[in-house]
Write a structure and sequence with these properties.
By secondary structure, the protein is an alpha+beta fold. It has a single domain, classed as Gcn5-related N-acetyltransferase (GNAT) (Aminopeptidase, 3-Layer(aba) Sandwich), CATH 3.40.630.30. The chain is built from five helices and nine strands. A five-stranded antiparallel β-sheet has the order 1-2-3-4-5, with helices on both faces. Strands 6, 7, 8 and 9 form a four-stranded antiparallel β-sheet that branches. The protein is globular. The protein binds coenzyme A. Coenzyme A (COA) binds next to β5, α3 and α4. It holds the Pfam family Acetyltransf_3. InterPro entries: Acyl_CoA_acyltransferase, GNAT_dom, N-acetyltransferase.
Length: 189
Amino acid sequence: MTPILHLESARLTLRQWHDDDLREFAAMCADPQVMRYFPAPLTRLEAAALIGRIRGHFNEYGFGLWALERKDSGAFIGMTGLLHVNFDAPFGPAVEIGWRLARRHWGLGFASEAAWTCLRCAFAQLRLDEVVSFTSQSNLPSQKVMQAIGMLHDPDGSFEHPRLPPGHPLRPHVLYRINRAHWQQTLRG
Ligand SMILES: CC(C)(COP(=O)(O)OP(=O)(O)OC[C@H]1O[C@@H](n2cnc3c(N)ncnc32)[C@H](O)[C@@H]1OP(=O)(O)O)[C@@H](O)C(=O)NCCC(=O)NCCS
C-alpha cells in the first residue's frame, strides 16, 4: 500500500515530520499541562525518541501520527493520527486514533478537525473496519474530541492500562469506538 504521507483539512496540513519540528515538539511534551494525563512530561531526548518511533510506524505501516501544521501561519501545532495499539489490550488488535496539541492552539477546533481528516483516511483510504480511542477516565478534553468526531463510548470496554502500575490515578481508561457504518452515518448527519 502506498504510504499516506500527507493529508489536508480546511485549516491544517497533516504532514511528515521535519527535523526542525523537534524544538516545538519537545517544548509541547515538556509542558506539564499538556502531559497531565500521561505519567510524566518528556525530556528532549524522550521527545526525539518518540519522533523516531513515529517515523518507524510510518515506514512499517504507511500511516501514523502526522505532524500538524497551520495553513495560515505555517506553525507546527502538534500531532494527530492513527496507530496500531502497541500493548496487549483486551480490545486488540486494533488501530487507535490519538492527538496532542500545544496549549496555545487548544480550544480552536484543530484537534477535532485533524481527527475528522484522520478518520476519513482510516475508512476511505486504509479501508479499516473500526477505529478505537482510549484515554484515562479523567481526561475529559480528549473524550470531548472523541465525541465530536462521532465515536461512541463502549461502557464494557473500560480497562486498566497495563503500562501503569496498579493504583496509579491514570490507570483506569475508557474506550471509544467507531466503525465504518457509523462513520458513514455521521457523514450523512
Ligand atoms: C485533547 C486535546 C487535543 C483537545 O484540544 P482542544 O483544543 O480542546 O480540542 P478541539 O481542537 O477539538 O477544540 C474543541 C473546542 O474548541 C471549540 N472550537 C472552537 N472553534 C472550533 C471549530 N472551528 N471547530 C470545532 N470546535 C471549535 C469547540 O467548541 C470545543 O470547545 P469545548 O471543548 O468547550 O466543547 C488537548 O486538550 C490536548 O492536546 N491535550 C493534551 C494531550 C492529550 O491529553 N491527548 C490525548 C491523550 S489520550
